[in-house]
Amino acid sequence: ILIWFTADQNVSEEQAFSIPIRIISPNANKYCAFAEAPYQATLQVSAVGRRRHLKEFGEVIASKTVLDAVLDESKETSRTPQALSGREILGMVKEVADAPVRLRNIAPPSVLVRIDEFATVTGIRIACSFGDIKVTAELAPTSLSVRLPRFAADKLQADPVAHADVEQRIRNARKPDGSF
Fold this sequence. Notes:
With 180 residues, the chain is an alpha+beta fold. It is built from 6 helices and 9 strands; from the N terminus they run αβββαββααβββαβα.
């Protein structure tokens, strides 16, 4: 029985996994996310290893709703999305990198990621829409500053206006008895 048990544990098998990942930066001054909403990706992989290692790997993945891929600080910033390989992204996930399994058949083979620096845009005008509500309002402050990735700051600087739908907020704040 001991020989059978030992032999059974050394059998190498292959198992498919879906690994939900978000990419993050350890540097607070560097923006990092997958380029498309919902800003996380699910990579499909085949893992090869001993049965118990595959079981443990599956338990680790199942224990979290999403795993964090921590960006390598050496990655250059850019205002445009960059393609990173699925293998490279999985290597940034501690739980995957530490697992005693080999990964094969990673899909998708590459994913677009935005790696950018933050910029501050100042003097953004605030435009409020009161809709059908008849009010006399004085806005204070009349402008604001925001800190966001450079690619978004470039777009915002073309039309530096923050639009606020005040009517909807006022209607949502009304109590059931009609008062505020």
